[in-house]
């Protein structure tokens, strides 16, 4: 809708000016028909023949124009006086058409040219020889074929390379007429207009004259259009959209009643001019200003530029996320909540001597370098230290503002675990060796291993097994072999920690049992773990069911078959099958009647002796040996 207003204003201006803007009788009005361009019979005012005897065509008192021919490097042309200044921009327009005197001209003829030039030193004469002026510049040239026999209007902007005093138009066929079917080319021109080119130019600046496109609230916006040239009137209107938006600009207002102002642009205080019309530039918006300039010859030339009015009320608030990096250190990524243009974002990581403190008094110092940008990441933090993020915002339109936020010391990560497996082995001397292997974590952790006596499977004691020193810190496995015997309860304490999390541990009570002999006669060792009731923290071995209460068959059982368990006075909650390495797998089961359960064994189990652990809902633990064949 507002674009239509802009267009209507320009059309109004077009109607107010002389659209033809004819210079030096550019309409080629003639008082005679025929030979009218040489000095002896000059009936086309201000125009003379540059060579030959050009013809005045048309209707006297109506429309007349010039007709010229050329062949064999000879022909006719017209000229008029005009003061062209070196380096000045001009705009020339004219109507033109071209024909030949034969019905089927060849390519050579059709490639002959029609020319518009500016020159100095031309002397009018009736000779058909193409003259050589003292200085000449071609500003337009086209072939006969390209122009064609229908009238068309040509508009050409150009810059005079030298001072010239004449405008010169003529056709040129250098080819011999006789060898080209006696052909000649014919050029007709009319309505020639010349005007110094109108240039629209502008930029924005402040009161001091410094060019800028970002302004503060309340700051005057100046538009400098001093480099616009040859304008006698100008038009200004304003459009806007929120800063950061990619939507189309919306029309706001125009200067004056219809946007047009008489005179040259110069330097204008847009803020004051539009305030007088009760329109004000508001912070948070990007403004588009359209400037059109014109004169009595050129309706308008348009230019568009934008500027922004920045906000001076920007919050330093930010959000952050803490993660544990793969190397086991804390990484913190902070993101500014307000990312308004023209605002600088300043970030620093500070260490303090007190958890949660952000004051200067508690600050030890800055960690690392200052970071800039809307989003930053600090790396290499440790949970043994105290930190806060200091975030400042500032800009040309606002003074420093900051926010300080303390960071949490501990950062968790997915799949965190302190668990481990225990596997046995032995040697010919009858001593027992066990190896503990930590479950994997997705980040780097430190490991600490130690082994203690666990009377009755309880893991609260601190009596070390002699000869087994603590093992630390990078190994994810640990082996203990000194003074270990079968059927004795021990527990292994496994602790992990890194820069993300403090110490966490798992204690696992076990004993090594012999499940028969191997083929070579050596013992087949297996690990039996103690089950601790989660409610009482007491060994579940104290709640073992008697053999009379539990029956298991078939045993041995074939891999892939089902085990049937009959239990009196207990309801089954979970079943686990544990191999000799300590690896445990939960087995699916189904209740067949009030006392009987079927446990499914898939065919992946190898032959050997296994420990079956049955956990009942009342806390009772049942441990049975199962032989898979």
Structure in a nutshell:
By secondary structure, the chain is mainly β. 5% of the residues lie in helices and 48% in strands.
Characterise this structure:
This protein is mainly beta. It is built from four helices and 44 strands. The strands form ten sheets. Strands 1, 3, 4, 5, 7, 10 and 12 form a seven-stranded antiparallel sheet that branches. Strands 14, 16, 17, 18, 20 and 21 form a six-stranded mixed sheet that branches. Strands 2-6-11-8-9 form a five-stranded antiparallel sheet. The chain is elongated, with a radius of gyration of 50 Å. Residues 552-628 form the Secretion system C-terminal sorting domain.
Comma- or semicolon-separated keywords:
629 residues, 44 strands, elongated, mainly beta, single chain, six-stranded mixed beta sheet, seven-stranded antiparallel beta sheet, Secre_tail, Secretion system C-terminal sorting domain-containing protein, 48% strand, 4 helices, 5% helix
């Amino acid at each position: 809708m507002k674009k239509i207003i802009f267009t209507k204003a320009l059309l109004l201006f077009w109607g107010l000016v002389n659209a033809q803007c004819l210079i030096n009788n550019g309409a080629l009005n003639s008082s005679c028909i025929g030979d009218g361009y040489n000095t002896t019979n000059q009936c086309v005012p201000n125009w003379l023949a540059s060579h030959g005897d050009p013809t005045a065509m048309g209707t006297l008192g109506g429309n007349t124009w010039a007709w010229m021919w050329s062949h064999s490097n000879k022909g006719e042309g017209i000229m008029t006086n005009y003061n062209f200044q070196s380096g000045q921009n001009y705009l020339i327009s004219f109507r033109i058409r071209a024909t030949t005197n034969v019905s089927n001209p060849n390519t050579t003829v059709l490639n002959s040219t029609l020319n518009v030039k500016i020159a100095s030193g031309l002397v009018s004469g009736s000779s058909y020889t193409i003259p050589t002026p003292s200085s000449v510049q071609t500003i337009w040239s086209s072939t006969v074929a390209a122009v064609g026999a229908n009238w068309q209007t040509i508009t050409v902007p150009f810059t005079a390379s030298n001072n010239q005093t004449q405008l010169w138009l003529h056709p040129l066929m250098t080819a011999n007429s006789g060898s080209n079917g006696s052909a000649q080319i014919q050029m007709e021109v009319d309505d020639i207009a010349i005007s110094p080119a109108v240039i629209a130019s502008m930029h924005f600046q402040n009161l001091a004259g410094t060019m800028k496109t970002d302004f503060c609230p309340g700051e005057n916006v100046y538009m400098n259009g001093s480099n616009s040239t040859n304008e006698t009137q100008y038009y200004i209107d304003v459009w806007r959209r929120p800063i950061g938006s990619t939507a189309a600009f919306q029309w706001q207002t125009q200067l004056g009643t219809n946007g047009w102002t008489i005179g040259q642009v110069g330097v204008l205080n847009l803020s004051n001019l539009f305030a007088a019309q009760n329109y004000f530039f508001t912070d948070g918006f990007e403004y588009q200003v359209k400037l059109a300039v014109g004169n009595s010859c050129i309706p308008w030339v348009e230019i568009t530029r934008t500027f922004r009015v920045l906000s001076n009320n920007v919050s330093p608030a930010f959000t952050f996320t803490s993660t544990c990096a793969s190397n086991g250190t804390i990484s913190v990524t902070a993101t500014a909540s307000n990312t308004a243009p023209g605002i600088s974002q300043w970030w620093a990581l500070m260490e303090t001597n007190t958890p949660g403190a952000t004051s200067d008094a508690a600050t030890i110092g800055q960690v690392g370098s200052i970071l800039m940008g809307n989003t930053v990441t600090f790396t290499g933090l440790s949970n043994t230290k105290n930190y806060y993020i200091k975030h400042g915002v500032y800009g040309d339109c606002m003074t420093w503002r900051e926010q300080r936020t303390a960071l949490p010391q501990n950062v968790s990560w997915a799949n965190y675990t302190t668990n481990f497996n225990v596997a046995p082995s032995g040697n010919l001397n009858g001593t027992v060796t066990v190896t503990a292997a930590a479950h994997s974590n997705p980040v780097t952790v430190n490991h600490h291993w130690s082994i203690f006596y666990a009377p009755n499977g309880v893991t609260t004691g601190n009596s070390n097994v002699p000869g087994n020193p603590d093992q630390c810190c990078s190994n994810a496995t640990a082996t203990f072999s000194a003074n270990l015997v079968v059927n004795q309860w021990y527990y292994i304490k496994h602790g992990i920690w890194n820069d993300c999390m403090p110490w966490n541990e798992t204690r696992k009570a076990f004993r090594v049992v012999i499940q028969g002999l191997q083929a070579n006669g050596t013992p087949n060792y297996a690990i039996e773990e103690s089950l601790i009731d989660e409610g009482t923290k007491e060994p579940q071995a104290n709640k073992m069911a008697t053999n009379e209460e539990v029956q298991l068959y078939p045993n041995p059982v074939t891999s892939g078959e089902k085990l049937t368990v009959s239990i009196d006075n207990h309801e089954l909650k979970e079943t686990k099958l544990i191999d000799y390495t300590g690896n445990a797998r939960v087995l699916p089961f189904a209740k067949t009647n009030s006392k009987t359960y079927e446990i499914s064994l898939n065919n992946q189990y190898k032959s050997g002796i296994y420990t079956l652990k049955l956990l009942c809902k009342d806390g009772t633990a049942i441990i049975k040996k199962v032989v898979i064949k």
